[in-house]
Amino acid sequence: MFKFVKNKINAIKLFSKNNEDSNKEIKVDIKLTTNIDKNISIIKEIMGLNKDFIIREFFLGERKSIRIALFYIDGMVEKTTINQSILKPLMYDVWMIKSDINQNLNTIETIKKTIVSVGDIELESSINLLIESCLTGNTVMLVDKYTEGLVISTAAWVARAIEEPKTEVVVRGPREGFTENITSNTVLIRRKICDPNLIFEAMKIGVRTKTKVAIAYINGIVDKKIVDEVKLRLGRIKIDAVLESGYIEQLIEDAPFSLFTTVGNSEKPDVVAAKMLEGRVAIITDGTPIVLTVPMLFGESFHSSEDYYSRPYYMSFVRIIRYLSLIISIFAPSVFVALTTFHQEVIPTPLFFTMAVAREGTPFPAMLEAFVMIVTFEILREAGVRLPRPVGQAISIVGALVIGEATVQAGIVSSPMVIVVALTAIASFISVVHGDSASILRLIFIIIGGILGAYGITIGLIFVLVHLTSLRSFGIPYFAPFAPFVASDLKDSIIRAPLWLMNRRPYSLRPENSQREKANSLPQKQ
Prior knowledge:
The chain is an alpha+beta fold and 526 residues long.
């Protein structure tokens, strides 16, 4: 029997290995030859029957002895640039027409340096890289009898304009947000940080998509170990496609089985620039306005860019409200269930009688009642997000009012439970970053509170805190500056100290240069 099972397992492993081997592509780096017809034939064979792949052939020289071929993808290039800066000077330039008399002239170098009036031109001998460049919007030029081709930058396609992000709305501060174009995003960061030490390192991830990814950091501030770790994790990614930065986030995070994310993200250039100035690394992905930042600390999710643009006193109060909102959104339903089920003596007597009257005739226990209401709220919220905006808003409002009022009138749900769920729903919208983890924890604590009461909630809270203190984000303690305790970093944690007090960068991030401003920056009268 055991031998039979062992043989089956070995057969499954062998099948899986053969299947994986069959899926692997054997890529050979093909080089250009001196025969342009052969080069064109190879490129046509690789590109297949793509109707948007354009090949433009023409001749140069007085005796039409110089043969040239242009390759580009229709719709991804600026045709005006091709016509005015490439074809026109090559086909009508008198000096070039007569220059082929000189046998010692390097034609392709002459075209690159004196004829084509485009800013970015590179020489490349690999057909694979030439096709890859063509697929990203560049134009490839091949010259007969030369084993190198020209990659001419002519990329141009329709891009979304820079506008205010919908998820990070502020009252005071910049309104611009990232777009899906990686070049525009790097420029937006450059505008914020005019420092030659701002470094952008480019790479491509994705076997099929070859998505452009840029690693951004400030040399002299960021810890080099963090930069090396980011490069190592990105280099280990072997995947067919990267269509959004969420792919990269899930493949580089420290705790993939944790409910809490250890990779930050933002749509605002000022937020990313501020994090980089503290010693973080930004990961910019082409095709998405979401920029990742690492390492991430738990307290970042309660910070807003507007906190630093306004005076610190009210913004500190707002931060405390955000922390309380996360606590309410996770624990309010479970605490209510525990009190009404196990700990009625804790509730004030007048309030207890009022709640007892409201719950009279309710057929379900408090735990099931809270569970059903929370799930119903999640359904309404998801419907409001996924449906078109006017319809989604109408369904969310009408659904909440109608369902809430009808369930109370029918005696299925008590009115105090509706109030608790409504308060939980409002509080959950404040902490957007931890919204998904809070939704799951909320259901878990409802079950624990309904079975074990306050004792179960306390044990669950201890487990959550232990888990948070054990997490790391690229080697940095996730729950810093609370665990480990860093007194100097408390200036920008639950409260926000005045800017003239925050003269040092967060110690938790281990920056190379910790000094952010001069020590005595307190405003003084002249």
